[in-house]
Amino acid sequence: MTGLVYKSTGSWYTVKSEQGDFMECRIKGKFRMKGIKSTNPIAVGDIVDYELDENSDAVTGTIHNIHDRKNYIVRKSVNLSKQTHIIASNIDVVFLLITINNPPTTTSFIDRFLVTAEAYGIEAILVFNKIDTFDEAMRDEQLYLQYIYSEIGYKFLKVSALEMKGLDELKGMMIGKVSMFSGHSGVGKSTLVNALEPNLSLKTKNISEQSKQGQHTTTFAEMYDLSFDAKIIDTPGIKGFGIVDMEPSEVSGYFPEFFKLQDECKFNNCLHKEEPSCAVKKALEENKIAWSRYNSYLKILEGDDENYRQDVFNDDRIASDETRK
User: Is 128 left (phi over 0), alpha (psi -120 to 50) or beta?
Assistant: First the structure.
């Protein structure tokens, strides 16, 4: 039997069959060891083959095969630094929710996420959320970020779940697709899903006034069917985003504005640092490339993972525990 994984808790997987039935499944014990280096070999969005368990009071299944993924998006595992955590797979578009001040989303975080999406071939759209809370300074900051990323070619939206602004445009981008919402804890992912589909009633929490950081409300990544012919994967919030398995020579290829210029550099292997006749450095000096983007690029080259260990995906922590068993 074949089905689609809707939820992963690290030990059980909720699978929707081709007939539309949901079933809780496990994986075979040795399945984890077959060259899969992630803490969660099966992720939300995976297409899997499973068989019904015999001699069980409840109707459960055992997964024995994962179909080839068209793409997936990963981050470094929190507890196991040499492993990765697959956030979700088979994604058509990822929406990165950005808030200006509650909590603040840094350009470094945005750029790391966009680099990862570029590397795995997933369209990324920036969603500036909570626009109803903007004062003049926050509005200026949002317009500045909008300018930087739209000049590169990224699409963006401005939305407010509270005032129901921008939701029709967002729905239009989701119809017929598997979408993923991601971003820091507290940026309003679950609130936005609730605004799009009120019947889901996902749990939400307020921002901590003391830390200005969000509190985890989504414990595990989970997919939902929406009434307007769309699927959404809601994910736990993240603070940092470590880049995974990327050679220094590859990084600039995932910055679209750098990639366009690299053939104009004097050296084919130019890292855009100290090399002479570098087209990227020239564009930077002429303010044709944002300094924030270049700084993000340098930090990635230096291996600075923006303190990604300070944060945990709750499902990553559980999956890591399962892997060690």
Answer: beta
Query: Which pair of tokens denotes residue 83?
Result: 């492993």
pLDDT at 204: 54
Place of tokens 């196991």: 80
Band (pLDDT 50/70/90 cuts) for residue 54 is confident
The whole-number pLDDT of residue 241 equals 53
Contacts 24+ apart (CB under 8 A), 286-290: 289/257, 289/258, 290/148
The one-letter amino acid at 180: M
What does residue 194 show for φ and ψ, rounded to 5 degrees? -60, -35
- pLDDT at 210 exceeding the cut of 50: no
**pLDDT (average), residues 110-119:** 92
Residues sharing a CB contact under 8 Å with residue 240, sequence separation 6 or more, in sequence order: 109, 112, 305, 306, 307, 308, 309, 310, 311
Separation between Cα atoms, residue 317 and residue 308, nearest integer Å: 14
Q: What is the mean pLDDT of residues 273-288?
A: 96
Is 114 buried (19+), middle (13-18) or exposed (0-12) by CB count in 10 A?
A: buried
The residue type of 220 is F
User: Which secondary-structure segment (H or E) carries 147?
Assistant: helix 136-152
- Strand segments, DSSP code E, in 71-210 are 72-76, 84-89, 93-98, 123-128, 155-158, 178-182
Give the H/E segment covering residue 49: strand 47-52
- Beta carbons within 10 angstroms of residue 213's beta carbon: 16
Q: What percent of the chain has pLDDT over 70?
A: 78
